[in-house]
Amino acid sequence: MTAGRAVAAAVLLAAVATAHLLAAGRPVTALTGLLDGTAGGLEERIVWELGLPRLLTAVLTGAALGVAGYVLQTALRNPMAAPEFSGVNPGAVLGILAGLTLGVVPADSAAGALAAALLGGALGGGITWLFAARRDPVQLVVYGLLGSALLAGIATMLLAYQPSRFGNALRWLVGSVEGRVWEHLGFTSWWIAGWIAVAWACSAMLAVLAPGDEHAAALGLRPGVGRGVALAVAISLTAGAAGLSGAIAFVGLVTPHAARRLGGGVPTAAVAGAVALAGADTLAQLAVHLLDDTHRLGVPTGVVTALAGAAVLARLGRSQ
Amino acid sequence: MSIEVRDLHFSYGPRPILAGVDLTVAPGEFVALAGVNGCGKSTLLRLMAGLLQPTSGRILLGGTPLASLSRREVARRVAVLHQSLPPVPGLTVRQLVRQGRYPHRGPFGMLGEPDAVDEALELTGVAHLADRVLDTLSGGERQRVRLALAVAQDTGVLLLDEPTAHLDIRHQLEVLELVRSLRAARGLTVVTVLHELDHAARFAERIVALHQGRVWADGKPKDVITTGLLAEVFGVAGRVVLDDLHGTPRCLPDAPV
Questions:
Q1: Measured between alpha carbons, how far is residue B119 from residues A129, A274, B28, B142, B155 in Å?
Q2: b/e sequence B154-190, b meaning 16+ C-beta within 10 Å
Q3: Least Cα separation, residue B249 to chain A (angstroms)
Q4: Distance, in angstroms, between A285 CA and closest chain B CA?
Protein backbone atom coordinates (compact mmCIF):
# COMPACT_ATOMS: atom_id res chain seq x y z
CA MET A 1 0.00 0.00 0.00
CA THR A 2 1.51 3.31 -1.04
CA ALA A 3 1.52 6.42 1.14
CA GLY A 4 -1.25 8.02 -0.93
CA ARG A 5 -3.48 4.99 -0.51
CA ALA A 6 -2.77 4.82 3.21
CA VAL A 7 -3.81 8.47 3.62
CA ALA A 8 -6.96 7.92 1.56
CA ALA A 9 -7.82 4.85 3.65
CA ALA A 10 -7.27 6.78 6.92
CA VAL A 11 -9.47 9.67 5.76
CA LEU A 12 -12.20 7.27 4.63
CA LEU A 13 -12.10 5.33 7.90
CA ALA A 14 -12.21 8.56 9.94
CA ALA A 15 -15.19 9.83 7.94
CA VAL A 16 -17.15 6.59 8.35
CA ALA A 17 -16.26 6.41 12.05
CA THR A 18 -17.52 9.95 12.63
CA ALA A 19 -20.74 9.27 10.73
CA HIS A 20 -21.19 6.03 12.70
CA LEU A 21 -20.80 7.76 16.07
CA LEU A 22 -23.06 10.66 15.09
CA ALA A 23 -25.73 8.29 13.74
CA ALA A 24 -26.21 6.95 17.26
CA GLY A 25 -27.85 10.29 18.04
CA ARG A 26 -25.31 11.68 20.46
CA PRO A 27 -24.38 15.36 20.15
CA VAL A 28 -21.13 16.37 18.45
CA THR A 29 -19.85 17.86 21.71
CA ALA A 30 -19.86 14.37 23.24
CA LEU A 31 -17.44 13.24 20.55
CA THR A 32 -15.16 16.26 20.71
CA GLY A 33 -15.29 16.08 24.48
CA LEU A 34 -13.70 12.64 24.36
CA LEU A 35 -10.73 13.92 22.44
CA ASP A 36 -9.18 15.29 25.63
CA GLY A 37 -8.82 11.70 26.82
CA THR A 38 -11.40 11.61 29.62
CA ALA A 39 -15.07 10.64 29.55
CA GLY A 40 -16.52 13.48 31.63
CA GLY A 41 -20.25 14.04 31.26
CA LEU A 42 -23.09 11.57 30.74
CA GLU A 43 -23.16 11.94 26.94
CA GLU A 44 -19.41 11.40 26.75
CA ARG A 45 -19.72 8.30 28.89
CA ILE A 46 -22.45 6.88 26.66
CA VAL A 47 -20.25 7.33 23.62
CA TRP A 48 -17.30 5.76 25.47
CA GLU A 49 -19.21 2.81 26.91
CA LEU A 50 -21.56 2.05 23.98
CA GLY A 51 -20.77 4.04 20.86
CA LEU A 52 -17.07 3.31 20.56
CA PRO A 53 -17.28 -0.43 21.31
CA ARG A 54 -20.04 -0.74 18.71
CA LEU A 55 -17.95 1.13 16.16
CA LEU A 56 -14.88 -1.00 16.92
CA THR A 57 -16.95 -4.18 16.69
CA ALA A 58 -18.15 -3.14 13.24
CA VAL A 59 -14.66 -2.15 12.08
CA LEU A 60 -13.01 -5.34 13.37
CA THR A 61 -15.74 -7.67 12.10
CA GLY A 62 -15.77 -5.97 8.70
CA ALA A 63 -11.99 -6.06 8.36
CA ALA A 64 -11.88 -9.72 9.39
CA LEU A 65 -14.58 -10.71 6.90
CA GLY A 66 -13.08 -8.62 4.11
CA VAL A 67 -9.68 -10.27 4.53
CA ALA A 68 -11.16 -13.78 5.02
CA GLY A 69 -13.13 -13.39 1.78
CA TYR A 70 -10.10 -12.02 -0.05
CA VAL A 71 -7.94 -14.92 1.10
CA LEU A 72 -10.57 -17.52 0.14
CA GLN A 73 -11.30 -15.99 -3.28
CA THR A 74 -7.60 -15.76 -4.10
CA ALA A 75 -6.62 -19.21 -2.85
CA LEU A 76 -9.63 -21.00 -4.35
CA ARG A 77 -9.66 -18.92 -7.56
CA ASN A 78 -13.37 -18.43 -7.28
CA PRO A 79 -15.00 -14.99 -7.12
CA MET A 80 -17.99 -16.52 -5.32
CA ALA A 81 -15.90 -17.95 -2.48
CA ALA A 82 -16.75 -16.27 0.82
CA PRO A 83 -16.80 -17.15 4.52
CA GLU A 84 -20.57 -17.68 4.39
CA PHE A 85 -20.37 -20.01 1.37
CA SER A 86 -17.44 -22.13 2.46
CA GLY A 87 -19.07 -23.63 5.52
CA VAL A 88 -16.81 -21.59 7.79
CA ASN A 89 -19.18 -18.82 8.81
CA PRO A 90 -22.26 -21.08 9.27
CA GLY A 91 -20.05 -23.48 11.21
CA ALA A 92 -18.84 -20.70 13.50
CA VAL A 93 -22.40 -19.53 14.16
CA LEU A 94 -23.50 -23.11 14.79
CA GLY A 95 -20.64 -23.45 17.26
CA ILE A 96 -21.85 -20.40 19.17
CA LEU A 97 -25.48 -21.55 19.12
CA ALA A 98 -24.50 -25.02 20.25
CA GLY A 99 -22.54 -23.43 23.07
CA LEU A 100 -25.54 -21.32 24.03
CA THR A 101 -28.20 -24.02 23.91
CA LEU A 102 -26.09 -26.76 25.42
CA GLY A 103 -24.92 -24.37 28.08
CA VAL A 104 -21.25 -25.08 27.54
CA VAL A 105 -20.44 -21.47 26.75
CA PRO A 106 -21.80 -18.50 28.68
CA ALA A 107 -23.32 -16.15 26.10
CA ASP A 108 -21.51 -13.09 27.31
CA SER A 109 -18.03 -14.58 27.61
CA ALA A 110 -15.88 -13.26 24.80
CA ALA A 111 -13.32 -16.05 25.02
CA GLY A 112 -16.09 -18.68 25.18
CA ALA A 113 -17.85 -17.31 22.11
CA LEU A 114 -14.57 -17.17 20.21
CA ALA A 115 -13.61 -20.72 21.17
CA ALA A 116 -17.04 -22.02 20.15
CA ALA A 117 -16.89 -20.08 16.88
CA LEU A 118 -13.40 -21.35 16.18
CA LEU A 119 -14.37 -24.98 16.76
CA GLY A 120 -17.51 -24.62 14.68
CA GLY A 121 -15.68 -22.75 11.93
CA ALA A 122 -13.00 -25.43 11.74
CA LEU A 123 -15.72 -28.08 11.65
CA GLY A 124 -17.59 -26.25 8.86
CA GLY A 125 -14.41 -25.67 6.87
CA GLY A 126 -13.38 -29.27 7.50
CA ILE A 127 -16.68 -30.62 6.20
CA THR A 128 -16.30 -28.54 3.05
CA TRP A 129 -12.72 -29.75 2.71
CA LEU A 130 -13.82 -33.40 3.02
CA PHE A 131 -16.53 -32.94 0.41
CA ALA A 132 -14.16 -31.25 -1.96
CA ALA A 133 -10.94 -33.14 -1.26
CA ARG A 134 -9.00 -34.07 -4.38
CA ARG A 135 -11.36 -32.14 -6.59
CA ASP A 136 -10.84 -28.93 -8.49
CA PRO A 137 -10.57 -26.05 -5.98
CA VAL A 138 -13.01 -24.11 -8.14
CA GLN A 139 -15.69 -26.66 -7.20
CA LEU A 140 -15.01 -26.12 -3.53
CA VAL A 141 -17.67 -23.42 -3.44
CA VAL A 142 -20.39 -25.81 -4.56
CA TYR A 143 -19.51 -28.17 -1.73
CA GLY A 144 -19.17 -25.19 0.57
CA LEU A 145 -22.77 -24.26 -0.19
CA LEU A 146 -23.85 -27.83 0.53
CA GLY A 147 -21.98 -27.85 3.83
CA SER A 148 -23.34 -24.41 4.72
CA ALA A 149 -26.92 -25.55 4.12
CA LEU A 150 -26.30 -28.62 6.28
CA LEU A 151 -24.88 -26.54 9.15
CA ALA A 152 -27.69 -23.98 8.92
CA GLY A 153 -30.16 -26.86 9.13
CA ILE A 154 -28.51 -28.17 12.28
CA ALA A 155 -28.57 -24.66 13.76
CA THR A 156 -32.31 -24.46 13.11
CA MET A 157 -32.78 -27.86 14.73
CA LEU A 158 -30.97 -26.63 17.83
CA LEU A 159 -33.35 -23.67 18.03
CA ALA A 160 -36.41 -25.84 17.53
CA TYR A 161 -35.12 -27.98 20.37
CA GLN A 162 -34.94 -25.00 22.71
CA PRO A 163 -37.27 -22.28 21.38
CA SER A 164 -36.89 -20.22 24.55
CA ARG A 165 -33.36 -19.37 23.43
CA PHE A 166 -34.59 -17.87 20.20
CA GLY A 167 -34.37 -14.25 21.31
CA ASN A 168 -30.78 -14.73 22.42
CA ALA A 169 -29.86 -16.65 19.31
CA LEU A 170 -31.36 -14.23 16.78
CA ARG A 171 -28.48 -11.77 17.26
CA TRP A 172 -26.01 -14.46 16.15
CA LEU A 173 -28.17 -15.82 13.34
CA VAL A 174 -28.80 -12.49 11.66
CA GLY A 175 -25.57 -10.85 12.72
CA SER A 176 -25.39 -7.71 14.81
CA VAL A 177 -22.63 -5.47 16.13
CA GLU A 178 -24.86 -4.07 18.85
CA GLY A 179 -24.47 -4.77 22.54
CA ARG A 180 -20.74 -5.47 22.57
CA VAL A 181 -18.78 -3.75 25.32
CA TRP A 182 -15.07 -3.34 25.98
CA GLU A 183 -14.72 -6.74 27.67
CA HIS A 184 -15.86 -8.50 24.50
CA LEU A 185 -13.32 -6.63 22.42
CA GLY A 186 -10.27 -7.20 24.57
CA PHE A 187 -9.06 -10.55 23.34
CA THR A 188 -10.90 -10.77 20.02
CA SER A 189 -9.51 -7.48 18.73
CA TRP A 190 -5.96 -8.80 19.14
CA TRP A 191 -7.00 -12.11 17.61
CA ILE A 192 -8.41 -10.42 14.49
CA ALA A 193 -5.56 -7.92 14.17
CA GLY A 194 -3.04 -10.74 14.54
CA TRP A 195 -4.60 -12.90 11.85
CA ILE A 196 -4.92 -9.95 9.46
CA ALA A 197 -1.19 -9.44 10.00
CA VAL A 198 -0.60 -13.12 9.21
CA ALA A 199 -2.71 -12.83 6.05
CA TRP A 200 -0.69 -9.78 5.03
CA ALA A 201 2.57 -11.59 5.70
CA CYS A 202 1.33 -14.39 3.42
CA SER A 203 0.61 -11.96 0.56
CA ALA A 204 3.39 -13.38 -1.58
CA MET A 205 2.06 -16.89 -1.11
CA LEU A 206 -1.46 -15.82 -2.06
CA ALA A 207 -0.16 -13.99 -5.13
CA VAL A 208 1.74 -17.05 -6.33
CA LEU A 209 -1.25 -19.31 -5.66
CA ALA A 210 -3.74 -17.14 -7.55
CA PRO A 211 -2.87 -18.02 -11.18
CA GLY A 212 -2.97 -21.79 -10.72
CA ASP A 213 -1.48 -24.87 -9.09
CA GLU A 214 1.11 -25.48 -11.82
CA HIS A 215 2.22 -21.86 -11.67
CA ALA A 216 2.56 -22.02 -7.88
CA ALA A 217 4.49 -25.28 -7.99
CA ALA A 218 6.82 -23.94 -10.69
CA LEU A 219 7.65 -21.00 -8.41
CA GLY A 220 8.37 -23.25 -5.44
CA LEU A 221 5.09 -23.34 -3.52
CA ARG A 222 3.28 -26.62 -2.91
CA PRO A 223 -0.30 -25.67 -3.81
CA GLY A 224 -1.86 -27.93 -1.16
CA VAL A 225 0.25 -26.36 1.57
CA GLY A 226 -0.60 -22.85 0.36
CA ARG A 227 -4.32 -23.58 0.31
CA GLY A 228 -4.13 -25.18 3.75
CA VAL A 229 -2.52 -22.06 5.22
CA ALA A 230 -5.05 -19.84 3.44
CA LEU A 231 -7.95 -21.88 4.81
CA ALA A 232 -6.53 -21.75 8.34
CA VAL A 233 -6.22 -17.96 8.13
CA ALA A 234 -9.75 -17.62 6.72
CA ILE A 235 -11.24 -19.87 9.42
CA SER A 236 -9.48 -17.98 12.21
CA LEU A 237 -10.61 -14.60 10.90
CA THR A 238 -14.17 -15.75 10.28
CA ALA A 239 -14.38 -17.26 13.74
CA GLY A 240 -13.16 -13.99 15.24
CA ALA A 241 -15.79 -12.08 13.28
CA ALA A 242 -18.55 -14.54 14.17
CA GLY A 243 -17.50 -14.54 17.82
CA LEU A 244 -18.10 -10.80 17.91
CA SER A 245 -21.03 -10.28 15.58
CA GLY A 246 -22.53 -13.59 14.45
CA ALA A 247 -23.41 -14.35 10.84
CA ILE A 248 -22.82 -11.07 9.04
CA ALA A 249 -23.52 -11.89 5.40
CA PHE A 250 -22.16 -10.51 2.12
CA VAL A 251 -19.32 -8.37 3.53
CA GLY A 252 -16.88 -11.22 3.03
CA LEU A 253 -18.23 -11.85 -0.45
CA VAL A 254 -18.49 -8.35 -1.86
CA THR A 255 -15.70 -6.26 -0.34
CA PRO A 256 -12.82 -8.39 -1.73
CA HIS A 257 -14.14 -7.53 -5.20
CA ALA A 258 -13.91 -3.84 -4.33
CA ALA A 259 -10.37 -4.36 -3.04
CA ARG A 260 -9.30 -6.11 -6.23
CA ARG A 261 -10.88 -3.44 -8.44
CA LEU A 262 -8.78 -0.91 -6.56
CA GLY A 263 -5.75 -3.05 -7.35
CA GLY A 264 -5.13 -3.70 -3.67
CA GLY A 265 -4.34 -6.70 -1.53
CA VAL A 266 -4.88 -7.71 2.07
CA PRO A 267 -4.70 -4.17 3.59
CA THR A 268 -7.16 -2.82 1.04
CA ALA A 269 -9.55 -5.72 1.69
CA ALA A 270 -9.34 -5.01 5.44
CA VAL A 271 -10.13 -1.32 4.98
CA ALA A 272 -12.90 -2.05 2.46
CA GLY A 273 -14.52 -4.54 4.85
CA ALA A 274 -14.23 -2.19 7.81
CA VAL A 275 -15.69 0.76 5.90
CA ALA A 276 -18.49 -1.39 4.46
CA LEU A 277 -19.63 -2.80 7.79
CA ALA A 278 -19.24 0.47 9.73
CA GLY A 279 -21.19 2.14 6.92
CA ALA A 280 -23.89 -0.54 7.03
CA ASP A 281 -24.17 -0.17 10.79
CA THR A 282 -24.47 3.61 10.39
CA LEU A 283 -27.48 2.93 8.16
CA ALA A 284 -28.82 0.41 10.67
CA GLN A 285 -28.66 3.03 13.43
CA LEU A 286 -30.35 5.65 11.25
CA ALA A 287 -33.07 3.12 10.38
CA VAL A 288 -33.78 2.71 14.09
CA HIS A 289 -34.42 6.45 14.34
CA LEU A 290 -36.76 6.27 11.38
CA LEU A 291 -38.64 3.39 12.99
CA ASP A 292 -39.15 5.68 15.98
CA ASP A 293 -37.36 3.46 18.50
CA THR A 294 -40.33 1.13 18.86
CA HIS A 295 -38.33 -2.01 18.14
CA ARG A 296 -36.67 -3.57 21.11
CA LEU A 297 -33.92 -5.27 19.14
CA GLY A 298 -33.27 -2.36 16.82
CA VAL A 299 -32.31 -3.10 13.24
CA PRO A 300 -29.57 -5.77 13.17
CA THR A 301 -26.62 -4.79 11.00
CA GLY A 302 -26.82 -8.19 9.30
CA VAL A 303 -30.13 -7.17 7.77
CA VAL A 304 -28.55 -4.08 6.19
CA THR A 305 -25.55 -5.99 4.85
CA ALA A 306 -27.84 -8.68 3.44
CA LEU A 307 -29.99 -6.11 1.60
CA ALA A 308 -27.10 -3.93 0.40
CA GLY A 309 -24.92 -6.93 -0.43
CA ALA A 310 -27.62 -8.55 -2.55
CA ALA A 311 -28.01 -5.30 -4.51
CA VAL A 312 -24.25 -4.97 -5.07
CA LEU A 313 -23.97 -8.64 -6.03
CA ALA A 314 -26.75 -8.33 -8.59
CA ARG A 315 -24.89 -5.41 -10.20
CA LEU A 316 -21.61 -7.26 -10.05
CA GLY A 317 -23.16 -10.29 -11.69
CA ARG A 318 -24.55 -8.20 -14.55
CA SER A 319 -21.32 -6.34 -15.18
CA GLN A 320 -19.30 -9.54 -15.59
CA MET B 1 23.61 -25.78 -15.31
CA SER B 2 23.57 -29.27 -16.77
CA ILE B 3 20.60 -31.62 -16.81
CA GLU B 4 21.08 -35.38 -16.79
CA VAL B 5 18.15 -37.72 -17.31
CA ARG B 6 18.88 -41.38 -16.55
CA ASP B 7 16.65 -44.27 -17.63
CA LEU B 8 13.51 -42.29 -16.87
CA HIS B 9 10.17 -44.09 -16.75
CA PHE B 10 6.82 -42.49 -16.15
CA SER B 11 3.25 -43.70 -16.45
CA TYR B 12 -0.19 -42.30 -15.76
CA GLY B 13 -1.82 -45.29 -14.11
CA PRO B 14 -1.25 -48.34 -16.31
CA ARG B 15 -0.44 -46.27 -19.40
CA PRO B 16 3.32 -45.80 -19.88
CA ILE B 17 4.27 -42.33 -21.15
CA LEU B 18 8.05 -42.50 -20.91
CA ALA B 19 9.76 -45.88 -21.22
CA GLY B 20 13.43 -45.33 -20.47
CA VAL B 21 14.59 -41.88 -21.54
CA ASP B 22 18.30 -40.98 -21.37
CA LEU B 23 19.34 -37.44 -22.10
CA THR B 24 22.21 -35.17 -21.10
CA VAL B 25 21.96 -31.44 -21.67
CA ALA B 26 25.21 -29.50 -21.27
CA PRO B 27 25.29 -26.15 -19.46
CA GLY B 28 24.22 -23.33 -21.80
CA GLU B 29 22.89 -25.69 -24.47
CA PHE B 30 19.68 -24.95 -26.44
CA VAL B 31 17.74 -28.17 -26.98
CA ALA B 32 14.39 -28.63 -28.71
CA LEU B 33 12.12 -31.59 -27.95
CA ALA B 34 10.14 -32.79 -30.95
CA GLY B 35 7.50 -35.47 -31.48
CA VAL B 36 3.82 -35.97 -32.06
CA ASN B 37 1.12 -35.03 -29.53
CA GLY B 38 1.10 -37.42 -26.60
CA CYS B 39 4.66 -38.67 -27.17
CA GLY B 40 5.70 -37.49 -23.70
CA LYS B 41 7.47 -34.20 -24.54
CA SER B 42 5.52 -32.12 -22.03
CA THR B 43 5.71 -34.92 -19.45
CA LEU B 44 9.50 -35.02 -19.79
CA LEU B 45 9.59 -31.24 -19.33
CA ARG B 46 7.44 -31.47 -16.19
CA LEU B 47 9.64 -34.24 -14.81
CA MET B 48 12.73 -32.11 -15.42
CA ALA B 49 11.05 -29.25 -13.54
CA GLY B 50 10.30 -31.58 -10.63
CA LEU B 51 6.55 -31.07 -11.06
CA LEU B 52 5.95 -34.80 -11.55
CA GLN B 53 7.61 -37.73 -9.81
CA PRO B 54 9.12 -40.37 -12.14
CA THR B 55 8.00 -43.98 -11.78
CA SER B 56 11.67 -44.93 -11.91
CA GLY B 57 14.95 -43.46 -13.06
CA ARG B 58 16.52 -40.20 -11.99
CA ILE B 59 17.26 -36.65 -12.96
CA LEU B 60 20.34 -34.66 -11.93
CA LEU B 61 20.45 -30.88 -11.98
CA GLY B 62 24.04 -29.64 -12.09
CA GLY B 63 25.00 -33.00 -10.62
CA THR B 64 22.49 -32.84 -7.73
CA PRO B 65 19.64 -35.36 -7.71
CA LEU B 66 16.39 -33.48 -8.33
CA ALA B 67 14.60 -35.71 -5.84
CA SER B 68 16.84 -34.46 -3.01
CA LEU B 69 15.87 -30.81 -3.56
CA SER B 70 12.89 -29.06 -1.99
CA ARG B 71 10.22 -27.47 -4.18
CA ARG B 72 11.73 -24.03 -3.61
CA GLU B 73 15.29 -25.19 -4.20
CA VAL B 74 14.19 -26.58 -7.55
CA ALA B 75 12.44 -23.30 -8.37
CA ARG B 76 15.70 -21.43 -7.73
CA ARG B 77 17.41 -23.60 -10.35
CA VAL B 78 14.69 -24.21 -12.95
CA ALA B 79 12.16 -21.81 -14.47
CA VAL B 80 9.36 -23.44 -16.43
CA LEU B 81 6.79 -21.83 -18.70
CA HIS B 82 3.72 -23.98 -19.23
CA GLN B 83 1.66 -23.60 -22.35
CA SER B 84 -0.69 -21.07 -20.84
CA LEU B 85 -1.14 -18.97 -17.75
CA PRO B 86 -4.71 -18.95 -16.40
CA PRO B 87 -6.13 -15.41 -16.22
CA VAL B 88 -6.12 -13.54 -12.91
CA PRO B 89 -8.48 -10.54 -12.89
CA GLY B 90 -6.61 -7.26 -12.46
CA LEU B 91 -3.12 -8.79 -12.24
CA THR B 92 -0.57 -6.32 -13.61
CA VAL B 93 2.64 -7.12 -15.45
CA ARG B 94 4.83 -5.93 -12.58
CA GLN B 95 2.83 -7.96 -10.04
CA LEU B 96 3.33 -11.12 -12.08
CA VAL B 97 7.02 -10.57 -12.74
CA ARG B 98 7.63 -9.88 -9.04
CA GLN B 99 6.40 -13.40 -8.34
CA GLY B 100 9.64 -14.61 -9.91
CA ARG B 101 11.34 -13.61 -6.65
CA TYR B 102 9.19 -16.01 -4.61
CA PRO B 103 11.63 -18.95 -4.69
CA HIS B 104 14.34 -16.65 -3.32
CA ARG B 105 12.34 -14.72 -0.75
CA GLY B 106 9.93 -17.38 0.46
CA PRO B 107 6.32 -17.21 1.66
CA PHE B 108 6.87 -14.27 3.99
CA GLY B 109 9.11 -12.23 1.69
CA MET B 110 6.94 -9.40 0.43
CA LEU B 111 8.09 -9.77 -3.19
CA GLY B 112 9.93 -6.45 -3.22
CA GLU B 113 13.32 -6.20 -4.94
CA PRO B 114 12.40 -3.63 -7.59
CA ASP B 115 15.91 -3.85 -9.10
CA ALA B 116 15.72 -7.52 -10.07
CA VAL B 117 12.20 -6.99 -11.42
CA ASP B 118 13.12 -3.88 -13.40
CA GLU B 119 16.10 -5.67 -14.88
CA ALA B 120 13.90 -8.58 -15.99
CA LEU B 121 11.37 -6.16 -17.52
CA GLU B 122 14.14 -4.30 -19.39
CA LEU B 123 15.85 -7.43 -20.63
CA THR B 124 12.63 -8.78 -22.16
CA GLY B 125 11.55 -5.43 -23.58
CA VAL B 126 8.34 -5.07 -21.58
CA ALA B 127 9.35 -2.25 -19.22
CA HIS B 128 6.83 0.06 -20.92
CA LEU B 129 4.03 -2.42 -20.11
CA ALA B 130 4.92 -2.74 -16.41
CA ASP B 131 1.71 -1.22 -15.06
CA ARG B 132 -0.66 -2.69 -17.65
CA VAL B 133 -3.17 -5.38 -16.67
CA LEU B 134 -1.98 -8.70 -18.06
CA ASP B 135 -5.34 -9.65 -19.60
CA THR B 136 -5.26 -6.57 -21.82
CA LEU B 137 -2.02 -7.55 -23.56
CA SER B 138 -1.63 -9.34 -26.90
CA GLY B 139 -0.46 -12.93 -27.05
CA GLY B 140 3.08 -11.96 -28.03
CA GLU B 141 3.33 -9.39 -25.24
CA ARG B 142 2.06 -11.93 -22.73
CA GLN B 143 4.76 -14.41 -23.69
CA ARG B 144 7.42 -11.70 -23.28
CA VAL B 145 6.03 -10.91 -19.84
CA ARG B 146 6.11 -14.58 -18.88
CA LEU B 147 9.71 -14.76 -20.00
CA ALA B 148 10.36 -11.71 -17.81
CA LEU B 149 8.92 -13.73 -14.90
CA ALA B 150 11.35 -16.55 -15.70
CA VAL B 151 14.25 -14.06 -15.87
CA ALA B 152 13.27 -12.58 -12.50
CA GLN B 153 13.37 -16.11 -11.13
CA ASP B 154 17.11 -16.00 -11.95
CA THR B 155 17.63 -19.71 -12.65
CA GLY B 156 20.27 -21.59 -14.62
CA VAL B 157 17.71 -23.62 -16.56
CA LEU B 158 14.76 -22.42 -18.65
CA LEU B 159 12.16 -25.00 -19.69
CA LEU B 160 9.53 -23.96 -22.24
CA ASP B 161 6.43 -25.88 -23.30
CA GLU B 162 5.50 -24.69 -26.78
CA PRO B 163 6.27 -21.02 -26.18
CA THR B 164 5.00 -20.08 -29.63
CA ALA B 165 1.59 -21.80 -29.45
CA HIS B 166 -1.32 -19.61 -30.58
CA LEU B 167 0.96 -16.80 -31.76
CA ASP B 168 1.06 -15.40 -35.27
CA ILE B 169 4.27 -15.96 -37.22
CA ARG B 170 5.90 -12.62 -36.45
CA HIS B 171 5.42 -13.03 -32.71
CA GLN B 172 6.60 -16.64 -32.90
CA LEU B 173 9.90 -15.42 -34.30
CA GLU B 174 10.08 -12.57 -31.79
CA VAL B 175 9.62 -14.93 -28.86
CA LEU B 176 12.23 -17.40 -30.14
CA GLU B 177 14.71 -14.61 -30.79
CA LEU B 178 14.10 -13.31 -27.29
CA VAL B 179 14.75 -16.78 -25.84
CA ARG B 180 17.98 -16.92 -27.83
CA SER B 181 19.12 -13.52 -26.58
CA LEU B 182 18.17 -14.32 -22.96
CA ARG B 183 20.17 -17.50 -23.17
CA ALA B 184 23.19 -15.51 -24.35
CA ALA B 185 22.71 -12.76 -21.76
CA ARG B 186 22.17 -15.09 -18.80
CA GLY B 187 24.01 -18.21 -19.89
CA LEU B 188 20.78 -20.21 -19.62
CA THR B 189 20.39 -23.87 -20.41
CA VAL B 190 17.24 -23.97 -22.54
CA VAL B 191 15.04 -26.98 -23.21
CA THR B 192 11.91 -26.25 -25.20
CA VAL B 193 9.07 -28.26 -26.66
CA LEU B 194 8.51 -26.98 -30.19
CA HIS B 195 5.88 -28.16 -32.63
CA GLU B 196 7.31 -26.31 -35.59
CA LEU B 197 10.27 -28.38 -36.84
CA ASP B 198 11.62 -25.53 -38.96
CA HIS B 199 11.82 -23.33 -35.88
CA ALA B 200 13.45 -26.10 -33.88
CA ALA B 201 16.04 -26.53 -36.63
CA ARG B 202 16.77 -22.83 -36.80
CA PHE B 203 16.89 -21.87 -33.14
CA ALA B 204 18.04 -24.99 -31.31
CA GLU B 205 21.57 -26.40 -31.45
CA ARG B 206 20.27 -29.86 -30.88
CA ILE B 207 16.99 -31.65 -31.47
CA VAL B 208 15.76 -34.61 -29.43
CA ALA B 209 12.93 -36.49 -31.13
CA LEU B 210 10.75 -38.59 -28.84
CA HIS B 211 8.74 -41.49 -30.15
CA GLN B 212 6.70 -44.00 -28.16
CA GLY B 213 8.21 -42.90 -24.88
CA ARG B 214 11.85 -43.16 -25.97
CA VAL B 215 14.47 -40.97 -27.61
CA TRP B 216 14.20 -41.80 -31.32
CA ALA B 217 16.88 -39.43 -32.50
CA ASP B 218 19.21 -36.99 -30.79
CA GLY B 219 21.68 -34.69 -32.51
CA LYS B 220 22.30 -31.61 -34.61
CA PRO B 221 19.24 -30.42 -36.57
CA LYS B 222 20.68 -31.45 -39.95
CA ASP B 223 21.30 -34.97 -38.64
CA VAL B 224 17.95 -35.43 -36.92
CA ILE B 225 15.58 -33.84 -39.41
CA THR B 226 15.39 -36.37 -42.19
CA THR B 227 12.73 -37.92 -44.38
CA GLY B 228 13.00 -40.96 -42.09
CA LEU B 229 12.03 -38.82 -39.07
CA LEU B 230 9.06 -37.40 -40.96
CA ALA B 231 7.90 -40.85 -41.99
CA GLU B 232 8.47 -42.85 -38.82
CA VAL B 233 7.89 -40.31 -36.06
CA PHE B 234 5.43 -37.90 -37.64
CA GLY B 235 3.77 -40.28 -40.11
CA VAL B 236 4.15 -38.07 -43.16
CA ALA B 237 5.90 -38.55 -46.47
CA GLY B 238 7.89 -35.43 -47.26
CA ARG B 239 11.11 -33.84 -48.38
CA VAL B 240 13.81 -32.10 -46.41
CA VAL B 241 15.66 -29.25 -48.12
CA LEU B 242 18.46 -26.98 -46.98
CA ASP B 243 17.64 -23.36 -46.20
CA ASP B 244 20.52 -21.49 -47.88
CA LEU B 245 20.22 -18.38 -45.75
CA HIS B 246 20.32 -20.05 -42.33
CA GLY B 247 22.05 -23.26 -43.32
CA THR B 248 19.37 -25.29 -41.54
CA PRO B 249 17.04 -28.05 -42.79
CA ARG B 250 13.46 -27.23 -43.74
CA CYS B 251 10.64 -29.73 -43.97
CA LEU B 252 8.24 -29.96 -46.86
CA PRO B 253 5.61 -32.46 -45.72
CA ASP B 254 3.68 -33.85 -48.67
CA ALA B 255 1.15 -36.46 -47.53
CA PRO B 256 0.25 -38.67 -44.56
CA VAL B 257 1.87 -42.09 -44.84
A1: 41, 38, 21, 17, 14
A2: bbbbbbbbbbbeebeeebbbbbbebbbebbeebebbb
A3: 34
A4: 36
Q: Across the interface, which of B73, B92, B102 has its CB nearest the CB of A219? A: B102
CB contact (8 A) between residue B86 and residue A77:
yes
Which residue among B73, B86, B96 sits closest to A212, beta carbon to beta carbon?
B86
Contacts of B85 in chain A (CB under 8 A): 211-212, 215
Tell me, yes or no, whether B32 lies in a domain: yes
> ipTM score of the complex?
0.89
Which residues of chain B fall short of a pLDDT of 70?
110-112
The number of angstroms, rounded, from the C-alpha of A203 to the middle of its chain's C-alpha atoms is 19
The model carries a pTM of 0.88
Interfacial A residues in 218-247 facing B (CB < 8 Å): 218-222, 226, 229
Q: What is the pLDDT of residue A83?
A: 85
Q: Which of A77, A207, A217 sits opposite B111 (nearest CB)?
A: A207
**Which residues are paired to B236 by β-bridges?**
B256
- Residue, of A31 and A197, whose pLDDT is higher: A197
pLDDT digits 0-9 by tens, B117-158: 999 999 999 999 999 999 999 999 999 999 999 999 999 999
Q: How many CB pairs under 8 A join A and B?
A: 73
- pLDDT bin (cut points 50, 70, 90) of residue A107 is low
Mean pLDDT of chain A: 84
Q: Which CATH superfamily is domain A3-319 in?
A: ABC transporter involved in vitamin B12 uptake, BtuC (1.10.3470.10)
Q: In the prediction, which pLDDT does A126 show? A: 82
What is the domain count for chain B?
A: 1
How many Cα atoms sit within 13 Å of B23 on the Cβ side? Answer: 33
Q: Least CB-CB distance to A220: which of B71, B82, B95?
A: B71
Residue B208 in any domain: the answer is yes
B106 reaches A (C-beta below 8 A): yes
Cross-chain Cβ contact B105/A204 below 8 Å: yes
A222 vs B71, B91, B98: nearest CB:
B71
| Helix A88-102, helix A140-161: angle, nearest 10 | 20
Question: Testing the interface with A: which of B102, B149, B159 to mutate, by most A Cβ within 10 A?
Answer: B102
pLDDT tens-digit readout, B22-47:
999 999 999 999 999 888 899 999 99
* A284-306 residue pLDDT tens: 888 877 776 555 557 888 888 88
Testing the interface with A: which of B71, B92, B133 to mutate, by most A Cβ within 10 A? B71
- The CATH number of residue B178's host domain is 3.40.50.300
CB contacts, 8 Å: B105 with chain A = 204
pLDDT exceeding 70 applies to what percent of chain A?
92
Give the per-residue pLDDT at A103: 73
What was the pLDDT predicted at A315? 80
pLDDT of residue A294: 58
State the residue range of the domain holding B59.
3-86+156-256
B194 within domain boundaries:
yes
Domain ranges of chain A: 3-319
Q: Do A215 and B91 touch (CB under 8 A)?
A: no
